[in-house]
Specification:
Low-confidence stretches: none
InterPro entries: 6-PGluconate_DH-like_C_sf (IPR008927), 6PGD_dom2 (IPR013328), G3P_DH_NAD-dep (IPR006168), G3P_DH_NAD-dep_C (IPR006109), G3P_DH_NAD-dep_N (IPR011128), NAD(P)-bd_dom_sf (IPR036291)
Bound molecules: 1,4-dihydronicotinamide adenine dinucleotide, 1,3-dihydroxyacetonephosphate
CATH architecture of the largest domain: 3-Layer(aba) Sandwich
Strand content: 5-15%
Number of domains: 2
Enzyme class: oxidoreductase
Mean pLDDT: 97
CATH topology of the largest domain: Rossmann fold
Shape: globular
Catalytic activity: sn-glycerol 3-phosphate + NAD(+) = dihydroxyacetone phosphate + NADH + H(+); sn-glycerol 3-phosphate + NADP(+) = dihydroxyacetone phosphate + NADPH + H(+)
Oligomer: single chain
Strand order of the largest sheet: 3-2-1-4-5-6-7-8
GO biological process, one term: glycerophospholipid metabolic process
Structural class: alpha/beta
CATH superfamily of the largest domain: NAD(P)-binding Rossmann-like Domain
Number of strands: 8
Subcellular location: Cytoplasm
Radius of gyration: 20 Å
């Protein structure tokens, strides 16, 4: 079965997913917003800013024209920074109407929208009228573009309230090195995906400060506890957080030099200023915006998220990381698990 897929976002993840879909035999248009980078993909078959050593399949075509990308499209895959999703979703609606297409909408981005605190599937639900789409599927899991570029074995979750659509997306993406599972818990998958980026910033900061393995394991484990706490308060199934989009993605993002969030945290731990770190990264660091959204959401819902609060204080209140760590350690003792809440 060959389907026509528009991949929106020609950064590192969008390029690798588009390339994989071409390898799987699909007809793919990769939409980017930078004419020079789009020309480089079409002419040199490289995308050196995001993936310096990667050779793109020459059959992958990129475009800056949404009319080309959305022509006869069956699937639209969003892989742009979370904060740009609403604007791009609103931009594609008139084109989809003109082209008379009603695609399945898929998101591979990870974050919460600032201001509204909404998950990406909620933003897409609001921005794209139901009459113009055929379901929404969320793709998430431990999956750095750099590793998928090497055809490393990679596993993801396709989450949707519509199991048939999730299974269809599973079939489209799966191959010998890329395996998808399905999950009906969209809230849990999206909350795990968004919030692990915040904890990865913290894990990187610990590394930058010279802390060892015990400390990093402590941060990730207690980080997962608070991710689950907020996720459950938002309606997630707690079991999802021990799956690929929860602990799986937390492990990869909280330990890998490929992670932009980990690298940003590492630089902060070494004493660099946030503005410089973000300016030098040249790629999206989702955890920064999502940390603010998560901090505000936790306050609104009265959910205790001490690690997220500490990271928020460092990112937004210019607090000292070591002071925040000392505060976390000196809090009164408490049970590891509140069995009344489970
Ligand atoms: N890089 C990775 O390994 C993975 C990334 N993700 C997620 O995928 C999303 C994208 O990440 P990356 O590809 O790493 O980011 P990136 O920074 O490499 O690329 C982002 C792309 O979006 C484009 N873009 C930014 N604003 C735009 C707008 N308003 N309109 C159109 N295009 C716009 C940029 O030009 C760039 O091509 C993020 O939410 C990230 O968390 C998820 C899994 C793996
Ligand atoms: O989500 C990711 C891997 O699963 C990518 O994380 P970074 O955005 O931190 O690179």
């Amino acid at each position: 079965m060959t389907v026509k897929i528009a991949v929106l976002g020609a950064g590192s993840w969008g390029t690798i997913l588009a390339n994989l879909l071409v390898e799987n035999g699909h007809q793919v248009e990769l939409w980017g917003n930078d004419p020079k980078k789009v020309a480089e993909i079409n002419e040199q078959h490289t995308n050196t800013h995001y993936l310096p050593d990667f050779k793109i399949d020459p059959q992958l075509h990129a475009t800056i024209d949404l009319n080309v990308a959305l022509d006869q499209v069956d699937v639209v895959l969003f892989v742009i920074p979370t904060q740009a999703i609403r604007a791009v979703a609103e931009q594609i609606v008139p084109v989809m109407i003109a082209k008379k297409v009603k695609p399945v909408i898929v998101t591979a981005s990870k974050g919460l929208e600032q201001g509204t605190h909404k998950r990406i599937s909620e933003v897409l639900t609001e921005a794209i009228p139901e009459t113009n789409r055929n379901g929404i599927v969320v793709l998430s899991g431990p999956s750095h573009a750099e590793d998928v570029a090497q055809k490393d074995i990679t596993t993801l979750t396709a989450a949707s309230s519509d199991l048939i659509q999730a299974q269809w997306i599973q079939e489209i993406f799966m191959n010998d090195y890329f395996r998808l599972y399905t999950n009906p818990d969209v809230v849990g998958v999206e909350m795990g995906a968004a919030l692990k980026n915040v904890i990865a910033l913290g894990a990187g900061a610990l590394n930058g400060l010279g802390y060892g393995d015990n400390t990093k394991a402590a941060l990730m484990t207690r980080g997962l506890a608070e991710i689950s706490r907020l996720g459950v308060a938002m309606g997630a199934n707690p079991l999802t957080f021990i799956g690929l989009s929860g602990v799986g993605d937390l492990i990869v993002t909280g330990t890998s030099v490929h992670s932009r969030n980990w690298r940003a945290g590492n630089a902060l731990g070494k004493g660099q200023k946030l503005a410089d770190v973000l300016a030098n990264m040249g790629m999206v660091v989702e955890g920064v915006a999502t940390c603010k959204a998560a901090y505000e959401l936790a306050q609104q819902r009265s959910v205790d998220m001490p690690i997220t609060r500490a990271i928020y204080n460092v990112l937004y209140e210019d607090c000292d990381i070591k002071t925040e760590i000392a505060y976390l350690m000196r809090r009164s003792g408490k049970p590891e698990i509140d069995f009344d809440e489970v």
